[in-house]
Each structure stands twice: as structure tokens, then as C-alpha cells.
TrEMBL record:
Keyword Signal: yes
Organism for this UniProt entry: Marininema mesophilum
Keywords: Signal
Residues making up the signal peptide according to the UniProt record: 1-20
Listed name of the protein: Lipoprotein
Record's keyword annotation contains Signal: yes
Length: 160
């Protein structure tokens, strides 16, 4: 009987260890999946056409979201954030290129997460005034050339 009890403890311990070590999907994958879901909702498929960042970035706490393009200077980024961020470099913000945008999540005036997003998968307009978990809701517009542009739902149908 003791042998079986010991074997179960070993099996349970191994299971818990393997479960804890299994990599969880990253924020980039979650964002890409949310973008695809919105794109798939075009023409009446699944989804409601809205991307709620609070659903995408739900594994950590944040109170502000900014989206920066590669063309934004260190000064613009730091002025937007309201503090000096070491990720804002003189040449390339957050190490992104022209085909990417950088999502910067802030909590209590500290950058807690960033994610690079490939603009070819869905282009987000730069956001230099903070969005909160309640206001970080995006609508997608499909251009005549078939490109997707994501902008805050609070902007409505205007093309700001």
C-alpha cells in the first residue's frame, strides 16, 4: 500500500512540474490571434469586429496603453509617457522597424510590458495619449487595398 501511495505522489509531482514548465502563449501571439479574430469577423463570420485590449492583455496589471511607431522620437515617447523610459532610444524606439508598431503597457508610471506588432498583420494607429483598460477598444477598417487599420473605437468613423 505504501508503494502505491509513494508512486501516486511521484506521478502527481511530475504532473505539476510539467504543467508549471509548459510555456504559456505570449502577448504577441495573443495580440495576433485577437487581430485575426476581428479580421475573420469581416463579412459576418465570428466575432463582433471589436478588439478589447483588456481581454488580450489580461495576464498582467496595466493602467495605460500607448502605441508608438518607429518614426517617433525618444522625446515624443518620453513626453507621451510622462517619464523617462530606458526603452526609448535615440534612433529606433523600442527596437522596432518601419513594419512594426510598439505597444507599451504602463502601470503606476512604469513600463510593465511591451510588444512589437507586425503592421502587415493589422496596422494600429499610433496612440500618444493613454488609453485605459476600459478605453483600449479598437475598431478595424479595411482599406480598398485590403489592409486593416485598427483605431480606438472612441474615435468613431472619423479617419484621424
Amino acid at each position: 500500500m505504501k508503494v502505491w501511495k509513494g508512486a501516486w505522489i511521484v506521478v502527481l509531482t511530475c504532473f505539476m512540474f510539467l504543467t508549471a514548465c509548459t510555456p504559456q502563449p505570449g502577448l504577441e501571439e495573443d495580440l495576433n490571434a485577437a487581430v485575426k479574430k476581428v479580421q475573420d469577423s469581416d463579412g459576418g463570420a465570428t466575432g463582433n469586429g471589436l478588439l478589447r485590449m483588456s481581454y488580450v492583455a489580461s495576464n498582467f496589471e496595466w493602467d495605460k496603453l500607448y502605441i508608438f511607431s518607429s518614426k517617433m522620437t525618444k522625446e515624443v515617447v518620453n513626453n507621451s509617457l510622462g517619464f523617462q523610459w530606458e526603452g526609448a532610444k535615440d534612433d529606433v524606439v523600442g527596437g522596432i522597424n518601419d513594419r512594426q508598431c510598439l505597444f507599451v503597457f504602463v502601470k503606476d508610471d512604469k513600463v510593465v510590458r511591451t510588444v512589437k506588432h507586425d503592421r502587415g498583420k493589422g496596422d494600429f494607429v499610433p496612440i500618444t495619449k493613454p488609453l485605459t483598460p476600459n478605453t483600449a477598444v479598437f475598431l478595424a477598417d479595411k482599406t480598398e487595398k485590403g489592409h486593416w487599420i485598427f483605431k480606438p473605437a472612441s474615435w468613431g468613423n472619423s479617419r484621424n
